[in-house]
Design a protein that fits this description.
By secondary structure, the protein is mainly beta. The chain is built from 1 helix and 10 strands.
């Protein structure tokens, strides 16, 4: 009898662990030209400045998470530009097709052209929270962005997530 109980317990633990495993996801995020974009020159070297910017974003290839798809959202970033590169930190939020939201923190670098316009961006991100079915979401990933001629950016997003089991 003890053996059957132990086997049943181990099987249920294995099943629960499989349900809470990380799930891979990816998508494409289109973000507008920063508006507003506020920058302040430091004055020690040409092109050395600090900035804060906000972008509106739309998922052109949505990420699928817990039965819902990402739709739109936004990002706010702050960083330091020096020598044709910027060091960026920011927060992103996305609305899901079912009304839930996800929240992300990100860090990366952006390469600028000779006129100071962003050309490419790459970095890493991690979930900081969510609502509804995505409450307690955890996970992380990477992003790589390319500038478009209108000043917008297109980001390829990859990563994984885990949602706590419903109680």
């Amino acid at each position: 009898m003890k053996t059957r109980a132990l086997v049943a317990l181990l099987a249920s633990l294995a099943f629960a662990d499989a349900l809470s495993a990380q799930t891979k996801t990816s998508g494409t995020l289109q973000c507008s030209k920063a508006d507003p974009m506020n920058a302040v020159e430091v004055g020690d070297h040409p092109g050395h400045l600090f900035y804060v910017a906000k972008q509106a974003c739309t998922w052109t290839k949505p990420m699928e998470m817990a039965g819902a798809s990402t739709k739109d959202g936004g990002s706010v970033a702050a960083g330091e530009i020096r020598g044709g590169k910027s060091s960026d930190s920011g927060a992103h939020w996305s609305s899901m097709s079912n009304g839930d939201k996800i929240f992300v923190s990100y860090h990366g670098t952006t390469t600028m052209d000779k006129d100071g316009h962003p050309q490419s961006s790459r970095g890493h991100w991690a979930y900081t929270g969510g609502t509804g079915k995505l409450k307690g979401v955890s996970g992380k990933g990477t992003y790589a962005g390319k500038a478009n001629s209108d000043g917008s950016m297109t980001y390829e997003i990859e990563g994984d997530y885990k949602v706590p089991a419903a109680k």
